[in-house]
Design a protein that fits this description.
503 residues; mainly alpha
Length: 503
């Protein structure tokens, strides 16, 4: 049951070679745009250091949107450009330039944050689950329970997206495992890859993983990054259980909508796959009984989820500390679940590099006031903040979802858009009844679910590489799903999110 995708690399290019001339042109355009912006005299309205950070943002957004270089490589461009643009801006006292030594510390500050270490630990836990075979076993157990009827099978795959999001705290790794299991099922049940059943299964994974991630703080880098930026901006800490309370009902509703959209767009005439149940049971039986390593890992993950969900209730351990302790337990002598050498090749180090740089950029956008300046000179200048609350949420959600479609990775989209969302929220009058952290969280949801094309997220690129569906077929599901998400967001803003204190 080997997947056609065996990489967790979030590069926007799955295959093919990079054209050096095209890359140089794209990089030159990005650099020229950043330099032009950095030379514009804004006066006292924009601090020199904030202008340098925005020049870095312009440089990186063009690189990310044009896919000038792979995402992993772009992390080095981010760190270097941020260092140089900030270094030659005036220091806070206005007497001298900041210098490269201090600017470099700012550019790599994200690698010292708890959010970065939480992602590191999460990737090791995900790698261990895959190496032990526990994820595959859990996936097959769910599919066996669901049965082989097409509708039940698709429902089982969707449930699996939500279940594995709890146990595998990395969406790309989750997608790789789900893709592997689905391809194995298709082969075992003789399901043709161009059939509506196959299209529906893989599209369920494409959209289901990001949707499930809305309700779990540790589902991947983007929600961790968003929560960290909210804390850096307003000092509001969202616990693991609170994140689930706010996001999971929204995610479940979108999951139901996704299920019926796929049923509508890709109906299956056959009532049942011939001898499907027996084939799935044989696939599960081929794994043999639960081994000692899987049992230990299952206990560790259940304990980790328990500690994450009871933070500040039964104990004072933060999410990062819990994840690090779980990772440490994996390597403990006597437990012997995995070794460093066994897992290091399964870790997407490029993802970690980009995430660290993205945290630095996001924090700098907030600390220098650059994010507020952008919001005030774009969205706020349109007079949106004077509109009714529902209109502010609806229009803001639409534009941030639209902007997120320009990126090929959610970590990059969060780094660019969430600080701007915070600046937007801070400019809204208190009389509107919207708090900064809650409004930012809602706009993050729109960024997370903004998926229409395969290039919008690494998860969809992984499933797209299986050649089961086309980009056009993904659009047929993605556009109505995005519009449905906006409608649900407004509905929740009028009801549930008010009841639980998000708004």
């Amino acid at each position: 049951m080997n997947s056609a995708c065996d990489s967790q690399n979030p590069s926007p290019k799955i295959s093919g070679k990079w054209n050096p001339s095209t890359v140089l042109i794209k990089l030159a355009c990005a650099l020229c745009a950043a330099l032009v912006f950095n030379c514009i005299p804004f006066g006292e309205s924009l601090a020199p250091q904030a202008q340098g950070v925005l020049a870095t943002l312009i440089f990186m957004v063009i690189i990310w949107v044009t896919e000038a270089v792979p995402f992993a490589t772009s992390s080095l461009f981010l760190i270097a450009s941020m260092t140089l643009f900030v270094a030659f801006s005036l220091s806070p006292d206005g007497a001298s330039m900041l210098g490269t030594k201090k600017a470099l510390l700012i550019a790599v500050s994200g690698f010292r944050s708890g959010a970065w270490f939480l992602v590191v630990a999460a990737l090791f836990l995900a790698a261990a689950i895959q190496a032990a075979g526990l994820g595959k076993r859990l996936a097959l157990m769910v599919v066996v329970r669901a049965g082989s009827k097409p509708r039940r099978m698709r429902a089982g795959i969707l449930i699996l997206c939500f279940l594995l999001t709890l146990f595998i705290p990395a969406q790309a790794a989750n997608a790789v495992l789900m893709t592997s299991v689905c391809l194995g099922l298709m082969q075992a049940l003789s399901i043709k890859r161009n059939s509506n059943l196959a299209k529906g299964i893989m599209l369920t994974v494409s959209f289901g993983c990001p949707i499930a991630g809305l309700g779990v703080l540790t589902s991947g880098a983007p929600p961790i990054q968003a929560a960290d930026l909210i804390y850096q901006a307003v000092g509001h800490h969202i616990s693991w259980l609170e994140w689930m309370l706010y996001g999971m009902p929204f995610a479940l509703l979108l999951g139901i909508i996704l299920f019926w959209l796929i049923e509508w767009q890709f109906p299956v005439k056959a009532a049942e796959v011939a001898e499907g149940d027996e084939a799935i049971r044989q696939e599960l039986a081929s794994l043999g009984p639960l081994c000692g390593r899987e049992k230990k890992l299952l206990i560790i993950m259940c304990g980790t989820i328990f500690l994450w969900s009871t933070g500040n209730i039964l104990h004072q351990l933060d999410n990062t500390t819990v994840a690090l302790l779980a990772t440490l337990t994996i390597f403990m002598p006597g437990i012997n679940i995995a070794t460093w050498d066994e897992l290091e090749n399964s870790i997407s180090w490029g993802t970690l590099m980009l995430f660290g740089g993205a945290i630095s950029l996001g924090q700098s956008l907030l600390s220098t006031g650059a994010a507020v300046w952008v919001a005030e000179n774009t969205i706020v200048s349109m007079g949106v903040v004077s509109w009714p609350t529902v209109a502010i949420i609806g229009v803001g959600g639409f534009f941030f979802m639209l902007f997120s479609l320009a990126f090929s990775g959610k970590a990059a989209a969060v780094a660019a858009l969430v600080p701007t969302a915070i600046g937007f929220a801070q400019a809204i009058p208190e009389s509107a009844g919207i708090n900064v952290w809650g409004f930012t969280l809602i706009l993050f949801y729109t960024v997370q679910v903004g998926v229409v094309m395969p290039v919008n997220t690494p998860v969809s690129m992984i499933t797209y590489s299986t050649n089961t569906f086309s980009a056009g077929e993904m659009v047929r599901v993605g556009i109505p799903l995005c519009l449905s998400a906006l409608a649900c967001m407004i509905l929740f803003s009028l009801t549930y999110w008010q009841w639980v204190g998000v708004i």
